[in-house]
């Protein structure tokens, strides 16, 4: 049974917890930080700070809303009874964080009855906080954002002039396929960017920092907040052939480019590993 929940209040809590997690990740990062464990492959890593900040966020949620559900990248999985679920990535871009590359973030999306209604992506090294409320818009540091680059002047960007972000999986076979796909796409676009964080790439689409984004292998915690931020900034997010964004494929762009990018990927069956 769904308990009454105000999305604005949920966003306020998510934003506060993301900021606190970001502070801890910056100020309390061990000098000798190393890999605590690996997941799907030796390159898919977890640090003690991933685990510590997920615990911090989960405890903060449950202290305020003990009946809510939680899904966290590092293992938090509570069903909940309120109809509200929090989808958490304590560090999206863990390899960047390990190597002290600034493109990493804290991502928290909040669902009511399966629909994401609020989201925050906190990027401490850039001093940026992206937020969105379903039906009310998206913001960077409190200022409204739109999913169009300054170069586009609010008009659809053709594929050949698009700056496109992407990411790569951890399995060697998937990487080989993704590398071949990017090699084919590169001559057909303005350029390619690879930041190393799906949530940051989505926020970059939402504020016009890049024109489009696609990636195979994203999990719910990678895109829960970022996808809402793109949509509330006027962009589109989905998979191929009309499917929803999923582990098979996530595509994000302003209208017009979204369809062109999906068309390129569909012809090449980019949601397959062969």
Draw up the topology in text.
Layout: H1 7-27, E1 37-38, E2 45-46, H2 48-64, E3 69-72, E4 77-78, E5 84-92, H3 94-98, E6 105-112, E7 115-123, E8 128-133, E9 137-140, E10 143-144, E11 163-166, H4 172-185, E12 191-193, H5 198-206, E13 212-215, H6 220-232, E14 236-238, E15 250-253, H7 257-267
Helix pairs in contact: 1-2, 5-6
Describe the structure in your own words.
This protein is of the alpha+beta class and 274 residues long. Helix content is 33%, strand content 24%. The protein has 7 helices and 15 strands. The protein has helices at 7-27, 48-64, 94-98, 172-185, 198-206, 220-232, 257-267; strands at residues 37-38, 45-46, 69-72, 77-78, 84-92, 105-112, 115-123, 128-133, 137-140, 143-144, 163-166, 191-193, 212-215, 236-238, 250-253. The strands form 3 sheets. Strands 4-3-5-6-7-8-9-10 form an 8-stranded mixed β-sheet, sandwiched between helices. It has a 5-stranded mixed β-sheet with strand order 12-11-13-15-14, with helices on both faces. It has a two-stranded antiparallel ribbon with strand order 1-2. A hairpin with a 3-residue loop joins strand 8 (128-133) and strand 9 (137-140). Helix 1 (7-27) packs antiparallel against helix 2 (48-64) and helix 5 (198-206) packs parallel to helix 6 (220-232). It is globular, with a radius of gyration of 18 Å. The termini are far apart. The model has no long low-confidence stretch (mean pLDDT 93).
Helix content: 25-40%
The poorly predicted ranges are none
Q: Give the CA-based shape.
A: globular
**How many H/I helical runs?**
7
Largest sheet: 8 strands, mixed
Measured on Cα atoms, how large is the radius of gyration? 18 Å
Biggest β-sheet: strands ordered side by side in the sheet: 4-3-5-6-7-8-9-10
Distance between the termini: 43 Å
Question: Structural class from helices and strands?
Answer: alpha+beta
H/E order of the elements?
HEEHEEEHEEEEEEHEHEHEEH
Provide the residue-averaged pLDDT. 93
Strand content: 15-25%
Count of DSSP strands: 15
């Amino acid at each position: 049974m769904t308990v009454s929940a105000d999305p604005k209040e949920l966003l306020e809590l998510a934003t506060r917890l993301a900021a606190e997690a970001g502070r801890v990740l910056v100020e309390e990062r061990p000098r000798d930080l190393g890999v605590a464990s690996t997941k799907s492959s030796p390159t898919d890593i977890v640090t003690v700070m991933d685990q510590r900040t997920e615990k911090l966020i989960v405890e903060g949620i449950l202290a305020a809303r003990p009946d809510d559900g939680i899904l966290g990248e590092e293992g938090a999985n509570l069903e909940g009874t309120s109809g509200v679920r929090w989808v958490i990535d304590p560090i999206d871009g863990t390899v960047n964080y390990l190597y002290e590359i600034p493109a990493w973030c804290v991502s928290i999306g909040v669902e009511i009855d399966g629909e994401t209604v609020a989201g925050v992506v906190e990027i401490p090294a850039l001093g940026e906080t992206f937020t969105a409320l379903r039906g009310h818009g998206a913001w960077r540091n409190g200022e409204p954002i739109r999913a169009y680059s300054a170069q586009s002047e609010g008009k659809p960007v053709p594929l050949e002039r698009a700056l496109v972000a992407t990411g790569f999986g951890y399995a060697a076979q998937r990487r080989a396929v993704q590398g071949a796909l990017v090699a084919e796409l590169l001559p057909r676009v303005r350029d390619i960017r690879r930041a190393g964080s799906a949530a940051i790439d989505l926020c970059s689409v939402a504020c016009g920092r890049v024109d489009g984004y696609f990636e195979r292998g994203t999990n719910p915690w990678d895109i829960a907040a970022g996808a809402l931020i793109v949509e509330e900034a006027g962009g589109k997010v989905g998979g191929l052939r009309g499917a929803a964004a999923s582990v098979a494929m996530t595509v994000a762009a302003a209208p017009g480019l979204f369809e062109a990018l999906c068309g390129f990927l569909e012809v090449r069956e980019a949601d397959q590993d062969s």
